[in-house]
Amino acid sequence: MAGEVPSFFFREEKLQQEIEQEKHAYPELNLQIRTLIQERDVMKSIYRDTDNQKKGHQQDEYMQDPVNPPTGIDE
Description:
Blueprint: H1 4-23, H2 27-64
Region (Disordered): 47-75
């Protein structure tokens, strides 16, 4: 087991070196990739926020009148 740990760290270090080499392979794409990642994350967070607000509102309605819950709640 002790022999496996150094080999794991060596493989991880080698992988990090390969990743760094790939990052420098097409430097003109770095800006485009970062921009796409940021745009995607913004849209995902906006969607997630509005979806959570809808679910929270439905739960509030359900808790206010547990005897006659509103229709349309997915359980």
